[in-house]
Amino acid sequence: MSEELLSVNNLKKYFSTGAGTVHAVDDISFSINKKETLGLVGESGCGKSTTGRTVIRLIEPTAGEIIYNNKNIADLNKRELRQTRREMQIIFQDPYSSLDPRKSIGDTIGKPLQIHKFGTKKEIEDKVDELMEKVGLSPDIYNKYPHELDGGRRQRVGIARALSLNPNFIVCDEPVSALDVSIQAQILNLLEELQHDMDLTFLFIAHDLSVIKHISTRIAVMYLGKIVEIAPKNALFKNPVHPYTKALLSAVPIPKLNRRHDRIILEGAVPSPINPPSGCSFHPRCKEMMPICKEIDPAETMVGEDHRVNCHLVSEK
Ligand code: SF4
Fold it and tell me: Quick one: pLDDT at residue 24?
């Protein structure tokens, strides 16, 4: 049986702004098993990146539990958090802005090792060489600077830096979205190889369902701060239940046939997370909306093995 590494329960992250309170992450729960990849998908602004940053406490949660290896990391003090952070890393979307332009590639990858007092200067250099080889970077670029590299190699530097402290869990926050399509597959394949070799567990955030489909074991669909459907990958693609998931999937091309399903066009923009709609927050855009949808937020309903949906269409049945 698969062993759970991370369990997130009733997590909330609200931000206060002059215009009101942003419900960026609004009471979500999910778990991730060791060595699996949970894909987190949704339109931009739905709270995916805030979720990723909150579960590793790069930003502080407003409420909820984040149980990692049986510890609630939401409760850890600074020293305990620093220890646990070694095991929890993040790869950012834009490798250029996440790298310090004044630091050489060798220094960038070695920085976490220096901070955590990994060893002598020589031991750190040797470890950096090893990490560069692992992610497919030539040793020739050790003394180069980020602006001298293309996007694919910069992302490999970001990956090497994330691996430097030998983590168990990595939040991959749109790691291929800023890359050319030809480079995306190389980076995805690299992440899969590393996962296999190093027994890594991923929370993989993307807005592109083709990317999510390629890499995920299970998929969670987010809309306006909430998870509306979560299921094993094949179950979600074969039998999407939530109207929002159906609309997202309808835009994915069918391989080989080079055509699309009947596309469901989502009308209207994502509503503001400052004043989310009442009841089911998807109701203003949902073609299957019923009177109850405006009044009551749908509860979680199991519709198959490990397949959970929040929609009155299924809870009413
Ligand atoms: Fe649509 Fe109602 Fe289901 Fe929300 S609860 S997705 S509005 S049918």
Answer: 96
Positions of E strands within the chain: 4-17, 20-33, 37-41, 63-68, 71-72, 88-91, 169-173, 201-206, 218-223, 226-232, 253-254, 259-260, 300-304, 307-310
Is the CB of residue 283 below 6 angstroms from any atom belonging to ligand 1? yes
pLDDT, tens digit, 9 for 90 and up, residues 202-234: 999 999 899 999 999 999 999 999 999 999 999
Q: Ligand 1: which of 264, 312, 317 to mutate, judged by most atoms within 8 Å of the beta carbon?
A: 312
Atom of ligand 1 nearest to the CA of 228: 6
And the tokens for 70? 């049986």
Q: Express each pLDDT in 173-205 by its tens digit.
A: 999 998 998 899 999 999 999 999 999 999 999
Q: Do the strands 259-260 and 20-33 form a parallel or antiparallel pair, or are they unpaired? A: unpaired
Distance 292 CA to ligand 1 centre (A): 9
The response to whether residue 280 sits with its C-beta less than 6 Å from ligand 1 reads yes
DSSP-derived 3-state class of residue 230 = strand
Query: Residues in the chain with pLDDT < 50?
Result: none
Per-residue confidence (pLDDT) for residue 253, from 0 to 100: 67
Distance CA 247, CA 105 (A): 42
CA–CA separation, 294 vs 50, rounded Å?
A: 26
* Test site for ligand 1: of 224, 267, 287, 288, most ligand atoms within 8 A of the Cβ: 288
- The answer to whether the CB of 224 is under 6 A from ligand 1 is no
